[in-house]
Amino acid sequence: MVSVLWGSILSDKMIVALLNYSLILFVIAILAGLILREGKKASYLGSILTCTASILLLTIVFIETISLLTKGMIITVSTAVPLINMPIRIDGLSLVLITVIALLGLASSLYTPRYMEYYEKLAREGYFIALFSTFIASMLLIVLTSDIIWFIFMWEVMTFSSYLLIIWEYVEEYVMKAGWKYFVTMHFLSTLPLMIGIIALWETTGSTSMDVISARISRLPTELLAILYTLFIIGFCSKAGVVPIHFWLPDAHPAAPSNVSALLSGAMIKVSVYGLLRFCCHLLPVNMIVGYVVAFLGTLSLTIGTLYALKQTDTKKLLAYHSVGQMGYIWLGLGAGMVLLSQGNTLGFLGIIAGLYHLINHAAFKGLLFLSAGSILYRAHTRDLNILGGLNKIMPWTALFTLIAALSISGVPPLNGFMSKWLIYEVTFSSANGLLAFFGIMALFISAATLASFIKFYTASFTGELKVKMKERAEVPGSMLAGMGILAVVCILWGVAPVVILPLLNVATQAIRATIAWKSVIEVSALWVNFQETLFSPIILLAFIAVVFSLSILAIKPHRYTIVRSWDTGVGIDEYEYRDYKLIAKHYYIAFEEAIHSLYYLGEKLCRVGYGLLYNIIKVLLGANMGLARACTKLCRVVRDIGATVDRKACEVYLDEMIISPLVSILNALSRFLGWTVLRTDINTFLVYSALYVAIMTLIAILFMGLMKP
Amino acid sequence: MIMRLVSLCVALVIALVFSLIFDGIGRKIKARIQQRMGPPILQTMYDVSKLLKTPYIVSGGLMFILAPCLAFASALASITMVPVGGITPISFSFDIFVFLYVIAMVSLSLMLAGFSVQNTYANIGANREMMLILSTEPILGVALAMFALLTKRLSIEGIAYTIGVIDYRFLPLLLVAYIILVYTVYVEGGFIPFDLAEAETEILEGPLCEYSGRLLALFKWALLIKRFTLIWLFASLITIPFVAPVFSGINTVISYILVLTSQLLISLALYCSIAANEAFTARYKIDWAISLNKRVFLISIIFLAMTAMFTL
Fold first, then answer.
1. Statement to judge: residues A400 and A319 lie in one domain
2. Would you call A535 an interface residue with chain B, using a CB distance cutoff of 8 Å?
3. Which of A467, A485, A656, B222 has the fewest CB atoms nearer than 10 Å to its CB?
């Protein structure tokens, strides 16, 4: 009986059912948001729905993990979404991303209803929930679909919904600017190259199904493969904010509400990593030059991104620059993996695992950090680290969660950030490849810079005397804490017990198309992580430290204490002076920043390169677009004249209003939503869309001609 | 297995006792060079034991009390990873990166403590410590990468044993790797002229400025253990490949004791020469220290490139 029940739980039918229910819940959340439009009720209802949907998704991951640990393999599912008939497939790689999306979805859904009170003036909570749900569902469908056309469609849905979420606070000018930058960059440097690449794949292989394409890919000429690799690297790296196309990210991520920033930094940019792996390592075979390029771009991003983050004193901007930096670690791991795999070295699988491990870890701690920044904003109403301070007395839980996340991202053992960074060092240093070893050195150095930056983040905002004036001196509400707490627990769990996640990542590397056969390169048990001749037990480390820690607590014989004023060297400073008797955020690490100014100079130059690329593309396209617009205007005039003629001659017609009016009211609601999004996005959005259309059509035409020729 | 258990106990005892004695010896040497009598060799031990009896005052949050305990725990955790007398103690890992990160937790606690109190002196000290780590970390990375490229291993034990059987052509590069490692040990250990963070006369011992009594004792002890561990690591990288083979024929227990003694003597010799060097130098300014580290890093990169080329 039990085994039958167990068997029916561990089956693909169960997974399909869970998946369908979660998709239905997302759709209901969208509809509920659109219908209710305003009020807290919409916000609460929508959050409950997305929350439940995320829990269902996490159940899928749980079932798959159980299956992996008991049967040694995951359940691969191939099915189609009902109604729209979209083919989907769940394998190891998509499962990793489902974990990330579901986890972040859960945490930020919990966080959303109370946090959105901060944006009460803007109202339309229902619309927010509808967009929020669309955003999560689109990311989910991107990683699930096995059809490249659905992939690009959902990619566009994701980009557009995230754009609307970023400009939620549309009354602020900087938000609109940041959103605009995001929108334009994404369409010209991400959607456009991807669309061309995908259409070229479709044209040359004659199919849109990923399975068919990967079987037929060997027929393609090498030159075309090179072009495809380039297009996919540009398309996915610009979405992930890789230097030099990172200039949009530090503006866009802070501009969004914090729960959205958590999703953007935690989940959305990870989807582009999935895209690169799916297209460049699964559909197309693993290639050494691609590997070197990805590893190099990764090292560049982690260096430039983190060193810029070191200078920031705005909480969310600091975190956004760190997203650029930490994504660099992921790219470095993956790139090193690709290089080694193409050379026939099984260590390469470990590189891919390391990259994926850092991916999910980064999702957990960066999501948490953005939520913390949101909590600070919610209570203290500021993002400036220079005027913050002393919040740990008022918000002890937020302080604790932030500390956990800050230590995780800086790679303090045995938290999760350390585990993945450690694997990246192991791969790069033991690759017997001087260049990769150098990349590893940069990663090691930048790890220290990350620590520096997050010590600043934590100590400047939470410790010392309270400086900022707050309306309500209290901890943030419980539901917000719950959202943060889940991520904090995950940060500890994935670090201390890698057995819950590493086997899944190990299986995910089966999706890689390498010249060598897949081999399990890492052994994980409850206690030990073991590969090659290296082993490490985070649990024993934790136990050892805990024991010595408790002994030393005993040794210091804790006694009751009152916190005394710190020593002012006998000068006798007054209250006001005492409040400023602490280093402020902008004075941290000045000497070091001066010493590495040449790297900042390099970063500035690279930023200009990326920006210049975008600027020139748009200039050309808008020129073409203006011509199109003029032609359209003329066409419109002709149509208007014809209409006027018809109008004069036509007689009046009456239709049964009883039938028509419900239809009209539905259309009215829909158009109100669409109209609202149009008002929010202004006319430029449509100009860009039409310019994009021109560009794609032109390039497709060129492609067709090029392909027809032989 | 029994030997490894014994090694664990020996490592912990040696770290707790000799870290204090070595500091005493260092103080004595400095005093004699500067024509002073100096304190007795056991003075540091007396200081710590006296401080451990006195109560403390608290001028920060919970972090203020927990930081010294964390520093102490991680300092002791790091020494369990270094081979003692040729045998690695029972531990959670032997990996060099795990070692690096665990020992960095001592500095981490120091900085968290220093930055979280409302005292500019403590903040400045923590700030300097962080900048020093930032500028040293890449050099340490180069040293490790050179060892990894030369020996193809990444565990402390593995590196040490492989050095003994390395191709003689690589010996000059190996020597350079050792020199770079000593340099980083010197800087990370916070010896003069790199004692910027705890500059007593200048910024009132920096992060330790607000500490007193038992908390101060624990923190000082942790910092001394960290110093000792770094030197101990270096000594084991010399003992295992170059000294241990000499005693390989003899009974296990006797050879263990002999190797352990030689490791201690090498550590002592290194500590004494560092102390002598300390007596002759004065503290750097922070920007000088950073720019020196920058130059050392750029030079070491050249050697790394050479290593990469030769080992290809």
1. yes
2. yes
3. A656
Instruction: Please write the tens of the pLDDT for every residue from A24-51.
Output: 999 999 888 888 877 788 888 888 999 9
Could you tell me if B110 lies within 8 Å of chain A, comparing CB atoms? no
CA A290 to chain centre: 22
Q: Which of residues 374-393 of A touch B (CB under 8 A)?
A: 392-393
State whether residue A464 sits within 8 Å of chain B by CB. yes
Q: Which alpha helices (DSSP H) does A343-477 contain, by range? A: 347-380, 396-409, 416-429, 434-462
Q: What is the ipTM score, two decimals?
A: 0.91
B13 contacts chain A (CB < 8 A): no
- The range of the structural domain enclosing residue B280 comes to 2-310
Same domain, A529 and A399: yes
The pLDDT, as a whole number, for residue A299 is 92
Last residue in a domain, options A562, A596, A625: A562
> Is residue A437 less than 8 Å (CB to CB) from chain B?
yes
Residue A38 lies in a domain: no
Instruction: Catalogue the E-assigned strands of A204-310.
Output: none
- B88 part of contact set with chain A, CB < 8 Å: no
Specify whether A334 is located in the same domain as A480.
yes
Q: What is the DSSP letter of A209?
A: B
Q: Which domain holds residue A654?
A: 611-708
In this prediction, residues A158-182 reach a mean pLDDT of: 86
Nearest-CA distance B71 → chain A (Å): 9
A639 and A542 both lie in a single domain: no
**Overall domain count for chain B:** 1
Q: Are residues A615 and A520 in the same domain?
A: no
Task: Output the CA torsion sign for A698, A704, A706, A708.
Answer: negative
pLDDT, one tens digit per residue, over A444-468 is 888 888 998 999 999 988 888 888 8
The reported pLDDT for the residue numbered A684 is 62
Q: Find the CB nearest B105 among A412, A535, A547.
A: A412
Q: What is the mean pLDDT of residues A166-175?
A: 85
* B126 interaction partners in chain A (CB closer than 8 Å): 455
> Would A640 be classed as within a structural domain?
yes
**How many other CB atoms sit within 10 Å of the CB of residue A485?**
18
Half-sphere exposure of A610 (CA within 13 A, CB side): 26
Candidates B57, B145, B218; nearest CB to A556 = B218
Check if A667 contacts B (Cβ < 8 Å).
no
Share of chain B above pLDDT 90, in %: 11
Contacts of A392 in chain B (CB under 8 A): 61
Under an 8 A CB cutoff, do A392 and B135 touch? no
Question: In angstroms, rounded to a whole number, what is the distance separating the alpha carbons of residues B307 and B305?
Answer: 5
Tell me how far apart the alpha carbons of residues A497 and A492 are, in angstroms, rounded to a whole number.
Answer: 8
Entry pTM:
0.88
- CB spacing of A434 vs B123 below 8 angstroms: no
Q: Is residue A35 part of a domain?
A: no
